[in-house]
Amino acid sequence: MTDREFIASTIMDNLLKVAKVNINTGEYIFYKRIPTQDEARCLRAATITEYIQNIIDFGLLHPDDTESYLHHTDLDYLRYTITHQKRKMVHSFRRKVNDAYMWVTFEIIIPKDFSLESHPWVVFSWKEADSDSCDLEDALKTLSAIYHKILKINLTADTCQEVKVYSQELTPEMGHSLQISEWLRRFAECGNVHPEDLKEYYAFTDMNFLKSYFHSHSDCIRCRYRRMTNGSFRWVNMELLPSIEYTDSNQVLMLYIRDVHDSYISDLQYRKDLERVCSSDTLTGLHNRFAYNQVCDTFSASPTKPSMAVAFADLNGLKYINDHFGHVKGDQLLQHFTRMLTEEFGPENCYRISGDEFIVLLPSMEREAFLSQCNAFQAKIHGQRVPIASLGYHWEAAPSSLESVVHVAEVAMYADKQWYYNTYPQYARK
């Protein structure tokens, strides 16, 4: 046996199956196959495509690997990939042998004299995966449960390899291309990215940005956006990080896309609930002091300031009620006045800033309309057997700060409070 024959024999011994395949016609010739009855039945197929379909129909392929295996052995896909990338292709899947699944590495080898026109023959080989490959595939299957798209992309060559992709994404409607820049761009142009997220998506997937970023960074970067999934937009994360093959002259990255919709929506709701709790008064449901301070800060920071109308109310006799009838009655008094205030000015404009102090903020309201409303509300309070609150109000066209308008309204409230004490001296604070 010559050295060449020895090497060829050793290689063949380590393979489960070897076939020569015409990727134009699907014609195939097996030089080695698995010696089982199931395999023999599959070999009755006229083309390699029919043979692979027989493998699936006879239950010899793990169901979870069917879609990916069909994609990686599709002749149209192989012709396009070989023509444009001229690389060997390796794919792993689980194949049933003697009633047990085993990891198998499937490889397509392209001869040097390959030509789609004159010599369209390639070599299909299947071999039992080694333990490291099995561990890797198990890890990839776990990742696949988390990420619905995994690509190995090359920024330098502008190419991509599918590690895990749903078959429906490998269609023109989803913008599919073997050029990663074109695929990412077409994907958005086909309406698969929410219009409000397009600007951020395009900026993140810009090839020049990515090349520049990874020249100086080695950490993972992420972009969250909404993509069309089964007829509706869902939040996903696109994550990119350098492959172990990465060099500055050959920028190879791994791209992962993960659905984060449910967790992100839940987090948004939690933040809204937390913000509501932090910004709301638990007894009255009105905005609280924290929310009022935020409005003041926002107003001060704004370069353009609208007119501001402020009503400042202070509950009358709350201490007297608490001392003589208990805090439950005091709380009922607070809630009763809250209903009066919100019915008049709207709950969105009302704040409880301390135990018995309330503020109404009405930006951009006409002066005469505001003064008329406040005069009527004050008259309504004064018409009660015992006025429930003292009220002051002020309107200013171009205030420098919100606090300055509130201060004038507060001074006016104290004047009304003095009238209350003069009229009802029995309720004056001792």
Spatial strand arrangement across the major sheet: 2-1-5-4-3
Secondary structure category: alpha+beta
Helix content: 40-55%
Q: Kindly, what is the distance between the CA atoms of the first and last residues, rounded to a whole number of angstroms?
A: 117 Å
Number of helices: 15
Nearest-angstrom radius of gyration? 37 Å
Shape: elongated
The average pLDDT value, as a whole number, equals 88
Strand content: 15-25%
Low-confidence runs (pLDDT<50, min 5 residues)?
none
Brief rundown of the structure:
By secondary structure, the protein is an alpha+beta fold. It has helices at 3-13, 37-42, 48-57, 66-73, 75-85, 131-146, 180-192, 198-204, 207-216, 261-279, 289-301, 318-325, 327-345, 367-382, 402-423; strands at residues 17-22, 28-32, 89-97, 100-109, 121-128, 147-154, 159-165, 221-229, 232-242, 252-259, 308-315, 350-352, 357-363, 389-396. The protein has a 5-stranded antiparallel beta sheet. Strands 7-6-10-9-8 form a 5-stranded antiparallel beta sheet, with helices on both faces.
